[in-house]
Amino acid sequence: MNVVLRADVDGVGKKGDMLQVADGFARNYLIPKGRAIKATPGVQAQAAAMRRSAAAREAREREQAQGVASKLVPMVIRIPAKAGAEGRLFGSVSSADIAEAVGDQSDAVLDRRSLQIEEPIRTVGEHAVGVKLAGGVEFVLNVEVVKG
Question: Are 77 and 140 in contact, with CB atoms under 8 Å apart?
Fold first, then answer.
């Protein structure tokens, strides 16, 4: 049976894809759960329009993300924090703190979830923080924690 997916389905396809699936899979799983609809000429045209709009949206997001990355890559984000004599912080610098500092020190806005930091920073010095933005744009942000 030919169906058009209304949502991403793991191992099957992405939203807007038109594909051939087993009749039982379509009737018993995809269609009742609202994840697909039977492909008719009208539905196929709608699916093509959805794919075009999704591709355009992804291209815009990728372009915006590349603009943000080009602004932030040469920068060093400085974050003041209280620290002891040995350079160990009283507390830590989290991804939310880094995202806030980026907003304060540049006109770019980062979501804390886009920062790939395994654990909060607990020492003074320079640290490399991975950033993953929409559209698959990835870069490294230089963060310097200073005594303050």
Answer: no
Domain extents for the chain? 2-59, 69-147
Measured CA to CA, the distance from residue 138 to residue 118 in angstroms comes to 16
Longest pairwise C-alpha distance within the chain? 72
- CATH number for the domain whose boundaries are 69-147: 3.10.430.100
Q: What is the mean pLDDT of the chain?
A: 92
pLDDT tens digit string along 42-88?
888 888 888 888 889 989 999 999 999 999 999 999 999 999 999 99
Read off the amino acid at residue 44. Answer: Q
Distances (CA, A) of 90 to 8, 85, 93, 131, 148: 45, 11, 10, 25, 11
pTM of the model as a whole:
0.70
